[in-house]
Amino acid sequence: MTGTLFTNARLIDPDAGTDTIGALRVSGGRIAEILSGPADATGDTVIDCGGKCLAPGIVDLGVKICEPGERHKESFRSAGRAAAAGGVTTMVTRPDTLPTIDSPEQLEFIARRAAEATPVRIHPMAALTKGREGREMVEIGFLRDAGAIAFTDADRVVVDTKVFGRCLTYARSLGALVIGHPQEPILSKGAAATSGKFASLKGIPAVSPMAERLGLERDLALLEMTGARYHADSLSSAAALPALERAKAAGLDVTAGVDIHHLTLNVLDIGDYRTFFKLKPPLRDEEDRLAMVEAVASGLIDTISSMHTPQDEESKRLPFEEAASGAVGLETLLPAALRLYHADALTLPQLFRAMALNPAKRLGLPTGRLEAGAPADLVLFDPDAPVVLDRWTLKSKSKNTPFDGARLQGKVLNTYVGGTEIYAA
C-alpha cells in the first residue's frame, strides 16, 4: 500500500479519548491505517511530525460567510484561507446573508461559489423561515434536496410559537435538524452586556442570563411536543444547563454548543468599552464561563464553534451600545481553545471531541475522526508554540477579533483536506 505516512506524531483521537505517539497512513484521500509501533514506509511519502499533534480537522458549526450581499466583510475565498490557517477543514455556514439563504437557487449559488473559491469542505445551512422573519416556513424538503444540512434563523428567534412548532413538526417528518439560538427576544432586545453590578457601573444596557434559560425552556417544550431533532447553539449561561440536562435525560433528540469566546472570556473583558468584545449573547460572568467549561468536560455541551461573524471597521467603531455584535474566529478557534488545555480544564481529546467529532456526528458527516476509512481531513499543530496575535495578520477580510494583542499558545503547522495539504505555516 502506498500513500503518505505521517510518522512520529502525537495522535489525538477524540473518539477513543487517547493522546498517543504513533503513525498514520493516508491513501486515496482517506485514512488507511493507524500504527502504534514502527511503520514500514516502503513506497510512501514520509512526513515526520516531530512529535507534534496530529488531530482530525475542525468541523466549525455556524460560520458566517458574507456572500451574497456583504463581500467587503468576508468572501468564500478569504474565509477559506482563514479556515485552512486555523485548522478548520469543514465549515457549516449560516444563512444570515443579504438576501437570506432560503431558496434552492441560493443554496446552489453557495455550493458553486464554495467549490470555486475554498479549499475546505462547505456544508450550507438554510433559513428556517422565509427572510428569517419568523412568519412563514421555508420549503424544507426542497432545500434538503438542494443540499441544506440544517435549518436555522441564526440569531433571530422565531417569536411566534405556533410557527416555530409547525417548523419543528415538519422538520421531524423529514428528519431535518433545526438549530436554535435560545434567547427570550423581548428581554434581550437592545442589550449589550449581562446584567449585574459591572454593567450598571458602566452604564451599558443589559439582560439577565435568565433570558437564555427562558428561550431554551420554550424550545425544549416544543421539542417534547414535536419530537424533532434540535441543536441549541451558543449557550453561554449556567442558568440554562439544568434544562438541557433534564431534556437529555428525558431522551429528547437535543444537542447543544458553546462558542469559543464564551469559554475563554468574561464580562470584565468589555471594561474599556472595546467593541470587539461585543457579542451575541453578551459575555457572561466568570461563574458562567467556568460552568460552560465544566459542561464541555462532562459532555453535557456537545460542540465548540467559532461563531465566526465578520464585521467591518465602520460597524465596530461606534459607541458600545450601537456597535455591531460578533467576532471573527476561524483562525483563533484552536489557539484560544488551547488556553483551556494549558489551564488543565480540558484534555486535547476532549477539545477535539467538541470541535470535530461531535459536530460531524450531529450533522451525519464522516469527518472529525482518526480512524481507518475516514476522510483524511487533518490538522498538524504545535500546542506549545507561543503566539502574540496581531489582527492585521488574519486572513479574514474583517479583523474584529477580541484576541488582538493576546498572548496565546498553539500554532497550526499544516492543514490537510482529503490528504491534500491546503495550508503550511
Structure, described:
With 425 residues, the protein is α/β, with parallel strands linked by helices. It has one domain (57-363): TIM Barrel (Alpha-Beta Barrel), CATH 3.20.20.140. It contains 13 helices and 17 strands. The strands form four sheets. Strands 1, 2, 3, 4, 5, 15, 16 and 17 form an eight-stranded mixed sheet that branches. A four-stranded parallel sheet has the order 9-12-13-14. Strands 6-7-8 form a three-stranded parallel sheet. Helix 1 links the parallel strand 6 and strand 7. Helix 4 (161-174) crosses helix 7 and helix 7 runs parallel beside helix 8. The longest helix has 17 residues, at 210-226. The mean pLDDT is 96. This is Dihydroorotase. Pfam families: Amidohydro_1, DHOase.
Number of domains: 1
CATH architectural label: Alpha-Beta Barrel
Structural class per helix/strand content? alpha/beta
CATH homologous superfamily (4th level) name: Metal-dependent hydrolases
Q: Give the helices and strands as they follow along the chain.
A: EEEEEEHEHEHHEHEHEHEHEHHEHHHEEE
β-strand number: 17
Number of helices: 13
Determine and state the CATH class: Alpha Beta
Radius of gyration, Cα only, in angstroms?
A: 21 Å
What's the N-to-C terminus distance? 29 Å
Beta-strand fraction estimate: 15-25%
Named CATH topology:
TIM Barrel
Shape: globular
Q: Write down the overall mean pLDDT.
A: 96
Low-pLDDT stretches are none
EC number: 3.5.2.3
Protein name: Dihydroorotase
Domain Dihydroorotase catalytic: 51-236
Pfam families: Amidohydro_1, DHOase
